[in-house]
Amino acid sequence: MNVAAFNFQEWNARLLMEQSSAIKCPSISYHLAGTKKIQQELAKPNVLERFLENKEDIAKVRECFAGLWSLDDSEIIRKAIEQPELFVIKPQREGGGNNIYGDDVRETLLRLQKEGSEEDAAYILMQRIFPTVSLTYLMRDGIYHKDHAISELGIYSAYLRNKEKVILNNQCGYLMRTKLSSSNEGGVAAGFAVLDSIYLT
């Protein structure tokens, strides 16, 4: 469920669920942790230190972060307007087809600046990631073809707690999505990517 698209009634229903004794899957805190805005907050200086004690672990986690900024950072907005190909504008929506790339980044930022509305709070600016491209076979609707592609690995986990007591916290699988390297979007359901498996060499 897309929390960014919740209306008032849906938020009230979610509040009722959170206040109940039912097991939530996911809980609202875990659900919000996956939003772009919370990811941006976690990437800020001195925030990881609230959750991790080991400095080496903190450094390793921080190495995995791409740059994430709110649209009120005038210096980074200037850079994104000058070099839009290095950035992506992301809304608080999931499922593919929602991100803004290339020259559209510049046009969107200039439009938001001109309008001066609160709409920019619905977006974050992210450093564009350029993963390794490999030659692979992709199949859709029973037809395969060979092309240059990139992949994204997601790790499944199971986490169960009762208030402060952690009952279960395990890694339990993965999801690999592969798409054409020329494609900006990567949603499987939206038709931009295919499900894949890992081939270790």
Characterization of the model:
- Pfam families: GSH_synth_ATP.
- Its cofactor is Mg(2+).
- The chain is an alpha+beta fold and 201 residues long.
- It has three domains: 61 residues, no CATH class; 60 residues, Glutathione synthase lid domain (Dna Ligase, domain 1, 2-Layer Sandwich); 63 residues, 2-Layer Sandwich (D-amino Acid Aminotransferase, Chain A, domain 1).
- It is built from six helices and seven strands.
- The strands form two sheets. A four-stranded antiparallel β-sheet has the order 4-5-6-7, with no helix packed on it. Strands 1-3-2 form a three-stranded antiparallel β-sheet, sandwiched between helices.
- Helix 5 packs across helix 6.
- The protein is globular, with a radius of gyration of 19 Å.
Summarize this structure briefly.
The protein has helices spanning 8-19, 28-33, 36-42, 55-63, 74-82, 103-115; strands at 68-70, 87-91, 123-127, 134-140, 143-162, 165-180, 194-196. It has 201 residues and is of the alpha+beta class.
The biggest beta sheet is recorded as:
4 strands, antiparallel
Tally of helical runs: 6
> Which second-level CATH architecture of the largest domain applies?
2-Layer Sandwich
CATH superfamily of the largest domain: ATP-grasp fold, B domain
SSE string, helices as H and strands as E: HHHHEHEHEEEEE
Q: Provide the residue-averaged pLDDT.
A: 87
Distance between the termini: 37 Å
Strand content: 25-35%
**Structural class estimated from helices and strands:** alpha+beta
> What overall geometry do the principal axes of the alpha carbons give?
globular
Strand order of the largest sheet: 4-5-6-7
User: What is the fold-level CATH name, i.e. the topology of the largest domain?
Assistant: D-amino Acid Aminotransferase, Chain A, domain 1
Work out the radius of gyration: 19 Å
As a percent range, the share of helical residues equals 25-40%
CATH class category of the largest domain: Alpha Beta
Number of strands: 7
Low-confidence stretches: none
